[in-house]
Specification:
The protein is 41% helix and 8% strand. The protein is mostly helical and 106 residues long.
Amino acid sequence: MPQLLTAYKDTYNKNSEMNETDLDEIIEKVDLMVLDDYGTSVNTFGNQKLFSVMNMRKGKHNIITTNNTAKELTKNKDLAKQFSRMMMNATPIKVDGDDYRLKGLV
C-alpha cells in the first residue's frame, strides 16, 4: 500500500516519466493486483486514491492482505466504501497465527 500511494504522489513530480492517468491505466489493466497491508492509516489523498483503485479493480483478480478485522475496515465512511467495493465477488481467506517477525520477543 505505501508503495502504491508513493507511486501516485510521484506522478505529480514535473520530472516524472509517468502521469496519474498512465498509472491508472496500468492498475486497471493488470491481470492480478496484490495490495499488501491494506487498512494502514492513510491521509485524505490516500483514501481518495484507494477508493479510485477499488473502483478500477472491481470484478478483477486481486489479492488483498490485511491485519485488520472487517469491523476495523468499516469503522468510518471512507473505509466502509472501499471495503464494500473490495469485497464484491471476493472470497475471504482468514489466516490466524503468530507474527513470525516477533518470534522469541513476546
